[in-house]
Structure formats: C-alpha cells, structure tokens
Amino acid sequence: MASPGLELLFNSIKSQIKTSQDALIAVLHWELISKGFKCLGNGEEVKSVVPQIHQQSKESESLPTGWNSSPSFYAMRYSSKAEKDAVYILKVIQIEDDFLVHFMKKGTEAVESLNVRTADYTTGSVESY
C-alpha cells in the first residue's frame, strides 16, 4: 500500500519519537494531512474567533513543537481546506495499552471516536520506518 509522505514525516521527526505511541500519533497526523487538513498547533483551546483563526495560527503539515510532551495525552488543532472557517481537534488519551481517539469539529456536537489497541499497529521499535 502506497503511503506518500509518511516516510518523509517519519524521517523529519524520528529524533522526537520516544515511544510506539508517539509513532502512532504521527501516523494519525499524517492521515489527517493526507486528507487535506493542516495543523494549527497544540492543545484544544482556540484563542480567537473561528473566522480569524487562520490569520493568527500558522497552518502547517508538520507536527507542532512539543506535540509529544505528555506521554499519555495528545491534543492538536487542525483546519480543513474544505471548510476554511472550521477548527477540528484531535484528542488522544492513552488508557493502559489502548488509545482513545476523538476527532471533533469545534463548536458542534460532531465527534468521531475510535479505540485503538497500540500493540495491533506498532512493533515496539521506533528506530525505523
């Protein structure tokens, strides 16, 4: 299965990856980027009104600085090229060996949830792609 950009992402952050969970977050991020989303930064809070978010936050395909500063909780904001004024939140919580993944559109009740058993998708090695 072709995964354009995934190897490039891995090579750009491999010195930052500390755990298998970090690697899985990178894959989730890559999946969003490949679907047309751009990262706006860490955290859940939007500090401005939504229509102005793109003026105050730099949209990027890269993971933000400090993206893996917490070993069991990750939260990042995204914009969508399909909905320029919308902000989406990726929130991932580690519960034992599983991830609880929430992807939500800020300001609405729209939430997609997924439980991921990390051992099913990672090898334990973070040294190679």
From TrEMBL:
Domain PI31 proteasome regulator N-terminal: 14-125
Lineage start: Eukaryota, Metazoa, Spiralia, Lophotrochozoa, Mollusca
Range of residues in the leader sequence: none
Protein family (similarity comment): Belongs to the proteasome inhibitor PI31 family.
GO CC, alphabetical: proteasome complex
PANTHER family associated with the record: PROTEASOME INHIBITOR, PROTEASOME INHIBITOR PI31 SUBUNIT
Domain of life: Eukaryota
Source species of the chain: Magallana gigas
One of the GO biological process terms: proteasome-mediated ubiquitin-dependent protein catabolic process
Gene Ontology MF annotations: endopeptidase inhibitor activity; proteasome binding
Protein name (record): Proteasome inhibitor PI31 subunit
Keywords noted in UniProt: Proteasome
